[in-house]
Amino acid sequence: AMRLAALLAVLRPALPLLLGLSLGCSLSLLRAAWGRVEGQGGCPGAGREGFPGGGARLAAEREAPGPEREEFRPRIVPYTRDPSKPHRKVLRTRYIQTELGFHERLFVAVLTSKATLNTLAVAVNKTVAHHFPRLLYFTGLRSVKVPHGMVLVAHGDERPIWLMYETMHYMHQHFGSDYDWFYIMQDDTYAQAEQVKALVTHLSINQDVYLGRAEEFIGGDEQARYCHGGFGYLLSRSLLLKLHQHLDSCRNEILSVRPDEWLGRCIIDFLGITCISQLQGQHYHTYELAPNAKLEKEDEEEFQAAVAVHPVSDVTLMYRLHKHFSRIQLDRAYQEIQELQMQIRNLTSLTPAGEAGLTWPVGINAPFLPKSRFEVIGWDYFTEQHLFSCPDGSSKCELSGVSKADVSDIIESALEQLNSRYQPLLRFSKRQLLNGYRRFDPTRGMEYTLDLLLEAATQKGHTHVLVKRVSLVRPLSKVEIIPMPYVTEATRVQLVLPLTVQDLDFVANFLDMFAMNALDTHDNALLTLLFIYHPYDAQRVSQVDVFAGVKTMVGELEKRYAEVKIPWISVKTEVPSQVKLMDIVSKKHPVDTLFFLASVWTEINMEFLNRCRMNTISNWQVFFPVHFQEFNPALVYRGEQAASSSTDFLRDGHFDRHSFAEACFYNSDYMTARTKLAADILDQDEVLESMEVFDVFLHYSGLHLFRAVEPGLVQKYALRSCNPRLSEELYHRCMLSNLEGLASRSHLAMALFEQEQANST
User: Fold this and answer.
1) Coiled-coil intervals in this record (predicted)?
2) What are phi and psi of 406, to 5 degrees?
């Protein structure tokens, strides 16, 4: 017994391992036995190799797509290179969706005429056109004046059949490979855009679809149907591709008065497809308006659910229909919001946080919670007349423009919400806004807190004045991507560097950085120097040239890089106005030149040059980067070694928002804005001396001004020389840049403390 106990004590640590091995071996043997039994049994339909081979073939047959589904299977296109031919760079498409073969969802064609182009067509454009991703108008007129904001295709023949033929041919030629669905409607049709878009999102694109209001042919086959053109109809891309090759035959062989009947007969005769009103559980509801119909009485379910309404006899009726259906969609949206909020309230009690985790408003993100005092979002105080946090930095300014409209709208919304909650017992009217606070929370939207002096009236006519505080949120709505023109990183950048006598100590570092980061890397960038001579130095240039050292350095660079030429332009002036200098440079370069206006403290690098190319768009946007200015090392480190960690390169400094010395813009955009400026001020020199290039684009161009911090532009500390001959605003801005660039508040406080300690001892 003692020996057995000792043996068990020795084997006890190994028992789990032994049991696991035994269980694993047993399961392996059982599985092998089952496999042999199944393999020997066979089954009906098995191949010669037995059940596994036959089953694999059957599975492959089930998974193999038919010819109609082959287009929608992803395919890997092998890349084969002919060794006998020289290698060429592969050109990529502009957009990834083009390379992957993605299609846009819906294209809309509106058929119009001479009589309705400036009436009903304009009404369609103002009501539903902006809800569709792409909408074009087609007419048979010639040399017609196109109304503003409309894209019109004129075929030059007003015959209805010819217009339909040319429209189908045009859609196939220009958009047949870009869109999945094509919706054709007349300008006397009101179509619910959201309903049409929802319809195509629920339909499969791998079928030939001819969907609309099915109508019988007069004296024709009882089974054949065409889609009534007045109520619009939907064609799939596959049907349009098949139909295109038969359009010429249809034009020559089919006679019809109505274009919708002609198209329906063409599709039926050559493709064997008839018009249908429902597909895959989706119904195409329509409603025919009676003459002199009153929308207030049209409360039928068929009218409320209609995708298209026809005929719309005049512009006023079109706008009334749009208002009516917009109200229906808005009520549905509010009803869905209330249902979702109720579901959120019911489910919140089941979460770990319980009802305490319920945010207000229900369904909106919770307010941002700062982790430190530096992340606290401040509130802006306002009244009905003034704003106490102004864009220009002043403490008080008049409330105007969109800010005034925003405040008025939020007060009206507050009163509306109060009255909807307390009516009919109480009715509130505003006497005065006592206090108003607002802030923008990036996680949820604009928040408001209002202290309102209200007058409450009861049902019996008694009134009482009271103060009530209300909180409101204007949540962030659907985020939309702003369409921007296409740009590339291959554009040549023309650097322009203005130099004065005070800048001579920093030119060598600028040229070294330009050579290392642009010339050595073969970046597509050129440099032009602008020597600004004082009149006194200009008179002595033949004896003593103050820029002789810079010219020598330029000559050495041109010798080192034989293919590089660095031109310079000499200017004589006492007041180096940025606009005047840019006028000189602009005239010496082509209109499509991309300028980068730099300063002598700028350290050129490829990262920023690429951002300059991407953020500057001709006839659309100019870019004014905010460089990072390092603090004075004597105040920051006070004799200690500066931190060399790569993670601290943006720590001991600040982004200098007072400097507008760096700018990226196209010469054509500058010339356009400069022409408007010249017409406004008649080239008054004192006005030009008070302006910078930023002011020219801000006040005299309709372009987007992109002003953003740029971590790729890091400048060493240097005390800038501020020219007192410039305007008071520019001089004051230069002084502020110098003062704020000394050090942070903590560094300045420490320097003062050490100075007081030294004085006290």
Assistant:
1) none
2) -65, -45
Q: What is the mean pLDDT of the chain?
A: 84
pLDDT level of residue 740 (50, 70, 90 thresholds): confident
Tokens of 519: 């010339």
Distance (Å, rounded) from C-alpha 40 to C-alpha 32? 13
Q: Would the CA dihedral through 244, 250, 256, 262 be positive or negative?
A: negative
Q: Which residues contact 739 (CB under 8 A, 6 or more apart)?
A: none
- Which stretch of DSSP H or E encloses residue 449? strand 445-458
Residue 282 tokens, joined: 């989706």
| 274 vs 284: CA distance, rounded Å | 15
Q: Which amino acid is at 698?
A: L
Among 557, 578, 464, 568, smallest CA distance to 511 is for 557
Instruction: Determine the distance from the C-alpha atom of residue 716 to the mean position of all C-alpha atoms in its chain, rounded to a whole number.
Output: 35
What gap in Å lies between CA 329 and CA 333, rounded to an integer?
6
Per the listing, tokens 């309709």 go with 702
Orientation of helix 578-587 relative to helix 667-681, angle to 10°: 120
Integer angstrom CA distances of residue 468 from 364, 382, 386: 24, 17, 21
- Residue 34 in tokens: 């089952």
Cβ-contact 166, 155 below 8 angstroms:
yes
- Give residue-wise pLDDT tens across range 426-456: 889 999 999 999 999 988 999 999 999 999 9
Name the token pair of 606.
């490829």
Contact 655, 695 (CB under 8 A): no
Average pLDDT over residues 663-675: 93
Alpha carbon distance 563, 260 (integer Å): 66
**At 555, is the secondary structure helix, strand, or coil?**
helix
Domains of the chain, first to last: 97-311 (3.90.550.50), 380-475 (3.10.450), 493-639+649-723 (3.90.550)
How far apart are alpha carbons 166 and 140 in whole angstroms?
A: 9
DSSP 33-93: HHHHHHHHH--TT-BTTBHHHHHHHHHHHHHS--TTTGGGS---------TTSPP-PPPPP
Please, what is the end-to-end C-alpha distance for the chain in angstroms?
90
Separation in Å, CA 752 to CA 735, 744, 748, 749, 756: 21, 12, 6, 5, 6
Taking the CA atoms of 583, 587, 588 and 590 in sequence, report the sign of the dihedral they define: positive
CA distance 196 to 181: 11
Q: How many CB atoms lie within 10 A of CB 400?
A: 11
Query: 681: buried, middle or exposed (CB in 10 Å: 19+, 13-18, 0-12)?
Result: middle
Question: If we measure between CA atoms, which residue out of 709, 712, 674 comes closest to residue 693?
Answer: 674
Which of 535-539, 541-545, 755-759 has the least mean pLDDT? Answer: 755-759
Residue 109 confidence (pLDDT) above 70: yes
- Count Cβ atoms within 10 A of the Cβ of residue 744 and give its class: 0-12 exposed, 13-18 middle, 19 or more buried: middle
Euclidean distance between CA atoms 258 and 159, whole angstroms: 10
Distance CA 146, CA 121 (A): 11
Tracing tokens 């600004």 back to the chain, one arrives at 532
Q: What is the dihedral of CA 99, 101, 103, 109, to 10 degrees?
A: 90
Enter the tokens of residue 407. Answer: 């405040």
168's enclosing H/E stretch is: helix 160-175
Instruction: Note whether 361 and 475 are within 8 A (CB).
Output: yes
Q: Dihedral angle at the C-alpha atoms of 329, 330, 333, 338, nearest 10 degrees?
A: -140
Matching residue, tokens 């040319």: 166
Q: In this structure, which amino acid lies at residue 225?
A: R
Structure tokens at 632: 């004075």
- Displacement of CA 736 from its chain's centroid (Å): 35
pLDDT digit string, tens, across residues 15-40: 777 777 787 777 777 665 544 444 44
Measured CA distances, 321 to 121, 326, 401 (Å): 15, 8, 32
Q: Position 106: which residue type?
A: L
- For the question of whether the overall pTM of this predicted structure is more than 0.85, the answer is no
